[in-house]
Amino acid sequence: MRIARYSIAGQDPAFGVVELAEDGGGHPDTVSDLTGDPLAGPVQYTGARHRLGDVRLLAPVIPRSKIVGVGRNYAAHAAELGNEVPATPLCFLKPNTAVIGPDEVIVPPAASRFISYEGELAVVIGRICKDVPVERAEEVIFGYTVANDVTLRDLQEPDKQWSRAKGFDTSCPLGPWIATHLTLDEASDLMITTVVGGEQRQHGSSALMIRSIAELIAYVTSFTTLLPGDVILTGTPAGVGRLEPGQEVSVTIDGIGTLTNTLVPTPVADPTSTSGDNAQ
To answer: InterPro entries under this entry (predicted)?
Structure first.
């Protein structure tokens, strides 16, 4: 099943089940409306169905409390940036205000001039969990989605910690939906491909992770409680690089879908602006 979060005709966000023509049945791509939030409790079909092209897909989840990123979880990626593979998983946090959805724009802060893409498999947590054993990790997974861990590379090293470099508004595109039908074994061997401006930049399997999905869940829950809707970013394959203003970046994960966003120049700051909603 593919769970999407969407809006239609300016209405409030809703959840629905996506059915693609490639699934068979002779129907066009559609989304069937659901009552409530699948991460919060039981849901039902309302009977309403929309053509997928007629709705605006939003980030499929806004994490309840946090996004936990894992750095340098692919050996080739660590090497391409001149880093050693860490002895234990290298974790960092992104706030939920970093989340944007498909086709939304990435807006870097004025302090940075080197913005980099990082296509990743994201794990969406489905239940409150702490100290999860590796062998029970699958029990706490709601599903999987596509992520882009956008990074301000010129701030990452000078800051020595990654709050600005990886936690700025719009730094965590997620989408296009959550795939709940994949088993842990299936998710552990999916091809991740990133295309920038029509050119393939990344192409590597999640099987190349240094620490597996189950190991990451066990490690993360050894020091923090995860809540339904929290997200773990599992690391990026080799091939990361620079994004230029105006470039479109698409991350595709086989069996899940494609997430596309565009980098825009940093706008001139408006001192009268006090809030915004990046997380639709």
So the answer is: Fumarylacetoacetase-like_C, Fumarylacetoacetase_C_sf, Rv2993c-like_N
